[in-house]
Amino acid sequence: MQNNLEKYAELLVRTGINIQDDQILVVNSPIECADFARLVSIKAYESGAREVVIRWIDEQSTKIRFDMAKDEVFDEFPQWIKTMLEGYAKKGAAFLSIAASDPELMKDVDPKKMSRQQKVMSQGLEYYRTRMMTNQNVWCVASIPTVAWAKKVFPDAAPKDAENKLWEAIFKAVRVDQADPVAAWEEHQQNLNRRLDFLNSHHFKALRYKNHAGTDVTLALPTKHRWVGGGDKGPHGKVFFANMPTEEVFTMPKADGVDGTVVSSMPLNYNGNLIEDFQFTFSKGKVVDFDARQGKEVLRELLDTDDGAKRLGEIALVPYDSPISNQNILFYNTLFDENASCHFALGKAYPGCIKGGDNLSKEDLIREGANDSLTHVDFMIGTEDLEIYGITESNEEVPVFKGGNFVNF
Ligand code: ZN
Ligand code: ZN
């Protein structure tokens, strides 16, 4: 176990963040994950970090605040967070976030309060978020177990066993169970590159999705779209991985080019709430109808964030047969579940999915077909019978996915 922890902390610092000499590392960590955050600090210093700054997160306190603070505070933006994050961002810091929330902690909190809070945070941190989404700073999201999260994933196991099982599942997902994880990630990137080459060389004008669950949708792609996946290049040209694990290759649809029905294939954990068995109907890119067996009000709040929250900003392809989905575990954590399944995201598109997009203004990106929003939320739609066709400029249909997997790989 200790050996794997060391390997994992080292992998995050060296391959995920790819820390550079004299660089500052900011770590967002739940207080339950303190031991691991300290280990990450040590590995970062050993790799040349100038300073490691830890921002502790306590979701229990967040919950108490939602329950008991004066109502108007949820429309106020805490300026110090902006000062702190933007200050370090401008100094070229790298940002590592440990995502490990209790999937159901916030289920009794008023969804309106949460969406108001979410909105002021997104507005207040727009500059910081844009820097991350255009890779002006290096960032990485990874996870380690907490007892509350592990108990949700493995409800029948005793708390300690559940935690150990979740560790094991995470080590597998991030390839820490392999002898040389750094080499395993290099090989993984090469596999992703083959898929990227196939998609980028065909340069489809649209994709068509179909499965028995009821998904039947056509997504037009912007003329200048590009598929990306795996590592990104940071400001100094060094490769980093914004998500660990990551199995997806992705691009953006045209904000007004989505038509048809999309049915979810996994529950979505949104702000500590579960949204289950949901579906959307799109017309000219916009959600015109939606339903959910559970969490419909939370979903409505998400869609009402702004106009862009009702449109898609990401199309991601993940084979049904992949290291995470083969474990057959529902993680209740988007970082893992999205990498087990083909997914879309409501909200803001990644500028890098347009050629040269990282250097375009917001207006230019919108002109190229990109969606803009204060939010970006992934939801899963992949099934074992999913079929995807690419439609070429000359209206030819090229199979991309059959039986839930890439046709050519
Ligand atoms: Zn994604
Ligand atoms: Zn996403």
Question: Based on the structure, what is the oligomeric state of the protein chains?
Answer: single chain
Query: Helix amount, in percent?
Result: 25-40%
- What is the strand tally? 20
Q: Which secondary-structure class do the elements indicate? A: alpha+beta
Major β-sheet profile: 9 strands, antiparallel
* Total domains: 2
Morphology: globular
Q: Work out the strand percent.
A: 15-25%
Q: Averaging pLDDT over every residue, what do you get?
A: 95
Instruction: From the alpha carbons, calculate the radius of gyration and give it in angstroms.
Output: 20 Å
Structure commentary:
- With 409 residues, the protein is α+β, with helices and mostly antiparallel strands.
- The chain folds into 2 domains: 2-173, Thermophilic metalloprotease (M29) (Thermophilic metalloprotease-like, 3-Layer(aba) Sandwich), CATH 3.40.1830.10; 203-226 and 247-406, no CATH class.
- It is 33% helix and 24% strand.
- The protein has 12 helices and 20 strands.
- It has helices spanning 2-17, 34-46, 59-68, 79-90, 111-124, 126-133, 147-153, 159-173, 181-202, 296-303, 334-337, 362-367, and strands spanning 24-30, 51-57, 94-98, 139-142, 206-210, 216-220, 228-229, 232-233, 239-240, 249-251, 258-263, 268-270, 273-283, 286-294, 312-317, 343-347, 376-380, 387-391, 397-402, 405-406.
- The strands form 4 sheets. Strands 5, 6, 11, 12, 13, 14, 18, 19 and 20 form a 9-stranded antiparallel sheet that branches. Strands 7-10-15-16-17 form a 5-stranded antiparallel sheet, covered by helices on one side. The chain has a 4-stranded parallel sheet with strand order 2-1-3-4, covered by helices on one side.
- The structure holds zinc ion (2 copies).
- One zinc ion binds at residues 248, 250, 314, 316, 338, 343, 378.
- The site of one zinc ion has 7 residues, from β15.
